[in-house]
Design goal:
single chain; 330 residues; Nuclear Transport Factor 2, Chain: A; 12 strands; 18% helix
Length: 330
């Protein structure tokens, strides 16, 4: 416990923060401890969120990546990257996530939280860095069920949506806002073979759209919360990716052009999970199913999904049985 603060210390010197422990993939995560920002840390540890007028009652703001502070937790970095990704999709930009500067979180029920984050992002066109602010809400703890409430560059005005009226007026908007009944399932036909309904990305498309890897990392990290160790994402290897995009409101042929626009879509990311537990169970071939939802009337961008064994991929329809119209699911 921290003792009484010396009243002779200037107000800027009496700010408290939380210092997270190292979150390497091998070390256990310890409880963060509250410390006073020293005079040497006043520049690198200056609070962006407090500077924006943000106040979180009875919560500390965690400052990351500033000596002697430890790196930001993996999950928080992924949440910040998700926020920046939503901004890029909505604004047609290509900012690259760099690092989380600081964050705070509030606790929901039973353990889901809302994270408020400030982050650095690189503008590849100008080779300059901009600071962004974003907020991501976990709708369910231990699942990929996330809603990005907003993401804006520092200094820009946040657009305010009349969300309450919208979700009261529209049952669909209410379900999307709360991510109720939105969990994607395995389709009746193999998404990697059914070219009529699904678009199979080639290798260059997967590499160019780095956020596809972020979807996989988020699905893995969000669902592996019952351990004191940080998730080891290095053992995940993407094999193939298929996507089903809702093009009802889009112009232009085919689903491919909709990848980098805020289209509602479901991604099927087949990957190899070579973690020790999977190797021992002979269950390394996995598939992450991630639904992307954007509602322009509420301004909310959401990701919801799950990871299944590749054994749940439907078997091909047998040619010698024409009466079989639906593939058998293992």
């Amino acid at each position: 416990m921290i003792g009484n603060i010396d009243r002779t210390i200037p107000e800027s010197r009496r700010q408290l923060t939380m210092v997270p422990s190292s979150l390497s993939t091998e070390e256990e995560e310890e409880e963060p401890r509250a410390v006073r920002i020293s005079e040497e840390q006043q520049v690198v540890g200056k609070s962006v969120l407090l500077g924006l007028g943000y106040y979180c009652r009875n919560k500390h703001i965690t400052i990351c990546n500033a000596p002697p502070y430890s790196p930001c937790p993996v999950l928080v970095s992924l949440y910040a990257a998700m926020g920046l990704h939503s901004y890029n999709l909505l604004q047609g930009k290509s900012f690259k996530f760099s690092r989380v500067l600081e964050y705070s979180k509030t606790y929901g029920s039973p353990a889901a939280s809302t994270y408020r984050m400030a982050l650095d992002a690189m503008d590849p066109c100008l080779s300059s860095v901009r600071v962004f602010e974003t907020s991501v809400t976990e709708k369910s703890y231990g699942k990929l069920s996330l809603r990005c409430n907003f993401a804006i560059p520092l200094g820009e005005t946040r657009k305010i949506y009349n969300i309450i009226d919208e979700i009261r007026r529209s049952r669909e908007a209410s379900m999307e806002y709360n991510l109720t009944g939105c969990m994607p399932e395995m389709p009746p036909l193999d998404p990697f073979q059914d070219t009529n309904r699904f678009y199979l990305l080639n290798k260059s498309e997967v590499e160019e759209n780095e956020w596809i890897r972020m979807y996989l990392d988020l699905a893995f990290a969000a669902t592996h919360r019952g351990t004191s160790k940080a998730p080891d994402l290095s053992k995940l290897e993407i094999v193939e990716v298929a996507v089903s995009i809702d093009t009802s409101d889009e112009e232009g042929p085919g689903p491919g052009p909709g990848l980098c626009r805020p289209t509602n879509a479901v991604f099927y990311i087949r990957h190899m999970d070579r973690s020790t537990a999977r190797v021992e169970k002979n269950d390394v071939d996995r598939i992450a199913i991630v639904r992307r939802i954007y509602n322009p009337r509420t301004g909310c961008f959401s990701l919801i999904g799950q990871i299944l064994s590749s054994q749940t991929i439907p078997k091909p329809i047998m040619d010698d049985n024409p009466s079989l119209t639906v593939a058998t699911i293992l």
